[in-house]
Design goal:
heterodimer, A: 276 residues, mainly beta, Protocatechuate 3,4-Dioxygenase, subunit A, 9-stranded mixed beta sheet, two-stranded antiparallel sheet, 14 strands, globular, B: 205 residues, 8-stranded mixed beta sheet, two-stranded parallel ribbon, 2 helices, 27% strand, binds fe (ii) ion, protocatechuate 3,4-dioxygenase activity (chain B), EC 1.13.11.3 (chain B), Protocatechuate 3,4-dioxygenase subunit alpha (chain B), Intradiol_dOase_C (chain B), dioxygenase (chain B)
Chain lengths: 276, 205
């Protein structure tokens, strides 16, 4: 038997899938793997994302892996993922003001539209991908039995919604702006108003959960969970911008929130969309 | 010639928080009437081909306490080794098998359960076969970036020994953390340890 292929250098001088525990300096994006078997996804820049252990966010202390993760180039197991068609969506799935409301009522709070575009790191749109969102009500209260905040539940607000990006990667949903809320961490920690996002992309490597914050909120810069992100530049990408141009007059203000998922390397000779 | 186009930065991750179930499995946490059912609750949607198995497990923190607020997702090939995905180019996967499952864990114990089929082998980048495996993705309060790992099958010793990824792991004494144990007929246990002597090998992939 010949030596395993991954003991040889690949064409182009790049090594085959590597298994080292690489350190990356902040701000640098590690390159995607390219070999004769095709392009894998760009490696995640772990200096850009929050590290696992962030002691000021106390829950991370016992829940953060302590050993270095095993790095390797994506395989078909990470380059595929489930697909959801518009048939999974109900007519009110993208309307949190009404999807839990009774008898034609609506949720209480500042009415907003959240919209934006999902693209990959190469700025290619990510069409037909499922986005799930969840949030507290306008008073900062979640509809959950483990939640004990003083603020009352809104009988007409459930707090979940979902939508699917269109062929150009655009998405949109309607909701009420959530309130900030206190949480048990330090003696007086508060979450800024935020909406949780879950995004699938078209490959399990792209699977991502994050949070949207609102432009101008001074609480953003005091939050230990926001503070798990190493740089202000990265935090700024989670701040949705008020977009008066997209406002629905006499109805709802609009916030724009664009999302970037991992992408694959492109070459000059690539005339077709590969992988996505 | 390679052009590495100017790249955007990926949206940074944030923890799923304590209420991920509201968004991802609302029916599980008593938010009824919004969605007809929770996505991912069934991998098998019809008369599926292959060996039916049940995967059970618990996610433990560094103190040995089970997580009860996690969301666990799995992604796997069908019994023939094909993924039910638009990016699957080698053939067409079993139409009665989605390949994707999602569990909020048991309300009281945190134990997750997936009714699925044993996956077939799928190829590595160079065409060698990878041993049958199930990809796991774990998010929860206190986890800042979703954790990727794989579950392999303890009773596939020969395929595991030839697996291009397993065989490359420097600390071979940690490979058992990726192995599901056959408990009884058709039931495999795969516990996940976030920390400690048995810390699961997580993947940067
Ligand atoms: Fe939250």
């Amino acid at each position: 038997m010949t030596a395993p292929a991954d003991d040889r250098p690949a064409p182009g001088g790049e090594s085959e899938p590597h298994f080292t525990e690489k350190k990356h300096s902040p701000g640098q994006t590690p390159g995607g793997q390219r070999d004769k078997f095709g392009n894998s996804f760009y490696m995640r820049d772990r200096a850009w994302h929050p590290p696992a252990l962030t002691p000021l966010y106390k829950t991370s202390v016992a829940r953060s892996p302590q050993r270095a993760p095993l790095s390797f180039a994506t395989t078909i197991s990470e380059e595929t993922s489930p697909v959801f068609g518009n048939d999974v969506l109900g007519p009110l799935d993208n309307d949190l003001i009404h999807n839990f409301a009774k008898d034609g009522a609506g949720a209480i709070g500042p009415r907003i539209v959240v919209y934006g575009r999902v693209v990959d790191e190469a700025n290619r749109p990510v069409p037909n991908t499922l986005i799930e969102v969840w949030q507290a009500n306008a008073g900062g209260r979640y509809r959950h039995k483990k939640e004990g905040y003083l603020a009352p539940l809104d009988p007409n607000f459930g707090g979940c919604g979902r939508c699917i990006t269109d062929e150009n990667g655009w998405y949109e949903f309607r909701t009420v702006q959530p309130g900030p809320y206190p949480w048990p961490n330090g003696p007086n920690d508060w979450r800024p108003a935020h909406i949780h996002f879950s995004i699938f992309g078209h490959a399990f490597a792209q699977r991502l959960i994050s949070q949207l914050y609102f432009e101008g909120d001074p609480m953003i810069w005091q939050c230990p969970i926001v503070g798990t992100i190493p740089t202000p530049e990265a935090i700024e990408t989670l701040v949705a911008k008020l977009d008066m141009g997209a406002t629905i007059p006499m109805d709802a203000r609009a916030y724009r929130f664009d999302i970037v998922l991992r992408g694959k390397r492109q070459t000059l000779f690539e005339n077709r969309m590969e992988g996505l | 010639m390679i052009r590495d186009v100017t790249r955007l930065k990926e949206t940074p991750s944030q923890t799923a928080g304590p209420y991920v179930h509201i968004g991802c499995t609302p029916n599980f946490c008593d938010i009824g009437g919004v969605y007809p059912h929770d996505l991912g609750s069934k991998l098998i949607t019809g008369d599926v081909t292959g060996e039916r198995i049940t995967i059970k497990g618990t996610v433990f923190d560094g103190t040995g306490t089970p997580l009860k607020d996690a969301l666990i997702e799995i992604w796997q090939a069908d019994s023939a080794g094909l993924y039910n995905s638009v990016n699957e180019t080698r053939g067409t996967a079993d139409a009665n098998f989605t390949g994707w499952g999602r569990s909020p864990g048991d309300m009281d114990t945190g134990e997750f359960t997936f009714e699925t089929v044993k996956p077939g082998a799928v190829p590595f980048r160079d065409g060698r076969m990878m041993a049958p495996h199930v990809t796991f993705w774990i998010v929860a309060r206190g986890i800042n970036l979703g954790l990727h790992t794989r579950m392999y099958f303890e009773d596939e010793a020969e395929a595991n020994a030839a697996d291009p990824i397993l065989s490359k792991i420097e600390h071979q004494n940690r490979v058992p953390t990726l192995m599901a144990r056959r408990e009884e007929d058709g039931v495999y246990r795969f516990d996940i340890h976030l920390q400690g002597a048995d810390e699961t090998i997580f993947f940067d992939v």
